[in-house]
Structure formats: structure tokens, C-alpha cells
Amino acid sequence: MSETNRKKIYEGKAKILYKGPKPSTIIQYYKDDATAFNNKKRSTIDGKGALNNRISAFLMEKINSLGITTHFIKRLNMREQLVHYVDIIPVEVVVRNFAAGSICKRLNIKEGENLPKSIVEYYYKSDELGDPLVAEDHIIAFGWANLQELDELHNLSLRINDFLLGIFSSVGIKLVDFKLEFGRLNSADCTEIVLADELSPDNFRLWDNKTNKKLDKDRFRLDLGNTIDAYREVAERLGIL
Predict the structure, then answer these.
(1) Pair 70, 163: CB distance under 8 Å
(2) Residue 172 lies in a domain
């Protein structure tokens, strides 16, 4: 499908969504745009989109094989995936294994500290509000998800975390924390909660196991440099380049 005859549905900070070949599908295009601090910091990192496409496709396929349904169908080319159309739940789920980012400031915890257990947090998806931290009661009260769906988000997130901890540990990478998004996949028979969006160094914190070298978007956020080299290193360690 050429760029001229496809219909753009939505353009976000890192991806563009186009109408797919069937009404129930979407083509997800990965851009090279990089943003941080709720879009206040912006740049372009050549090759980032292609690497994120490959890394996310690889991890989504692995999670599908676990029996956890995702929106992912297949990788189409260097920058595009075919995915199921889903109604995105407006809640970002963050799973934390080690202290980093906002939790260090909120709770005065030293960066890198091993948390006593994996912690699941919820953030309301709103760039205008800065994606605020919310409680389970907020999610239910405002109808973003019901109690059963919230339980499913929590349980799926921890299952995915356990799996990804093993994947990254096997290649010498510490999974510090990461963000997940979920959506409702509607069919004639039922509505299913599925993993959506992407799984890449854009929404993971990944550190080298021995040196704690950052291999994720923090290199861009914190002006550490060599961002694309870090993403490429993740892909190479996973064996997908």
C-alpha cells in the first residue's frame, strides 16, 4: 500500500496508524521521532523506528506464544506492522523491578535499588495532564476499566514482567521498569483484553547487568548520547539483527 492511497487514522509521538487492509486491522508505522518529558523535549534519531519495529515484533511474538493475546499480527517491512484494531484503555500500566525515574523522587529511593517486590502502577493517559499517577479507585470510578478488567491488567502485566525478566536476563540485561498499554479486542463472541502499543527501548528501562549502562530512551532523556547504538545493542543481544 503506497503512502498516497492509505488513510491516516492517528499520529502519535513515535508512531503513525493507518487503516489496514481489513476493517479490523491497522498498519502501525514506527517513526524516528524521539520525545521526552511529555513531548517537551523532541528530536529525531535516525534508525530508531526500524529498530523498535524489529524489537517489538520479536517480543510480541514471544508473548503471543505464551498464550497472552496481543494486537500484533505480523511485521510487514522495516518500519511497519500489521496489528488488530483495539479500543485502547486510557491507562498506562508501569511495572517496576528496580527503582528509577519518578518513584525515586516520590519516595526518596536511591536509583538502582532492588525493590522488595515488582510494583504495578497506573497512570492516566493524558499528555495535557502529564500522564498523572492514579489509584485503582480512580480507574473504576471514572469508567476507564471495570474491576474485572483491572484485575486482568494487573495479572497480565505481572505475567509479562516475569517472562521479560527471563528474556533480558539471559542476554545480560536488567529489566528495570517498563510501560504497557492494553486494549479491548472486540469480536462477535466476546471482548478480550489484549496487549497493545509496542515493546521497545522507548518504553523500557534496560541496564547492562554488570555495568548498569543505560540501553534505553534515558540516553536521550538525560543527554547521555549514543542512543541509537544502545537500541542496536539491545537488538543484537536479543539476536534479531
Answers:
(1) no
(2) yes
pLDDT at 2: 47
Which residue positions in the chain have pLDDT lower than 50?
Answer: 1-2
Which residue, 182, 187, 94, is CA-closest to 144? 182
Query: What gap in Å lies between CA 177 and CA 190, rounded to an integer?
Result: 32
Single out the residue of 151, 159, 142, 180 nearest to residue 66, CA to CA. 159
Q: Is residue 144 part of a domain?
A: yes
CA–CA separation, 47 vs 20, rounded Å? 24
CA distance 207 to 197: 22
Residue 26 sits in which domain range? Answer: 8-84
Residues 72, 65 contacting (CB under 8 angstroms) = no
Q: What is the pLDDT of residues 201-225, one digit of tens each?
A: 999 999 999 999 999 999 999 999 9
**What element of type H or E holds 157?**
helix 147-169
Q: Which of 56, 84, 112 is the last residue of a domain?
A: 84
Beta bridge partners of 179: 94
The predicted pLDDT at position 1 comes to 45
Is position 232 within any domain? Answer: no
